[in-house]
Amino acid sequence: CRDIKMRVTRCCCCVPIKVGAYIIGSIHVIGLILGVILVSPLQISLEIFCGATFLYMAYRDNEKNRLLYFAAYAVYCFILGFIRMVFVFWDKDEKALVQQYCKTLQDQIDMAREGKPGWEATDFANVQDCRSQVGTAVARDELVSLLLTLFLQIHFCLVLWAHYTNSHMVKSKGGCQ
Asked: Keyword annotations for this protein (predicted)?
């Protein structure tokens, strides 16, 4: 009895898997250029790591190089996810920014006291309420951003895995043969 497996041939229902893999790789090359422009050593090193495997795969497209690119991308996602989680749960910087924002708002209210409403003109009852609400909003936004990024990275990993598993197919179907 032969195993019949479903082959994924399209990403997002319309883009061929091979094109999707090349789009993901192109994002790394663009990310490398942006890292150089912004002088970001971490971004440069991560994009070189992943972009180089993509360029090598694009130069010599075979099953081994597709697996190498998938593995490099999986490691890239793990490192990126770890760094993002550290920044989401390491909130000392955010607490300082929230305190600075609420202090600036308090100073503006104190300077404009002459006949103008105070905290009533804002969405906050007082400084403590400002810190609480803004801190919660910042944490929520960071968590949502982390989850969306995680979803997108998992999707990209699955695209690259499908690209690897399709390598035995003929070139006209997205393979290497």
From this structure: Membrane, Transmembrane, Transmembrane helix
Is-contact 65 31, C-beta < 8 A?
Answer: no
Determine the Cα–Cα distance for residues 24 and 28; give it in Å rounded to an integer. 7
Q: Per the domain annotation, does 19 fall within a domain?
A: yes
Which residue has better confidence, 145 or 9? 145
> Is residue 8 within 8 Å of 161, Cβ to Cβ?
no
Domain count, the chain: 1
- On whether the CB atoms of residues 54 and 69 are closer than 8 A, the answer is yes
Measured distance CA(35)–CA(14) in Å, rounded: 31
| Cα gap 61→80, rounded to integer Å | 26
Pick left, alpha or beta for residue 115 (phi over 0 → left; psi -120 to 50 → alpha; otherwise beta): left
Query: Containing domain of residue 142, as a range?
Result: 10-173
In a domain, 4, yes or no: no
- Do residues 54 and 29 lie in contact, with contact meaning Cβ atoms separated by under 8 Å? yes
* DSSP code at position 10: E
pLDDT at 74: 94
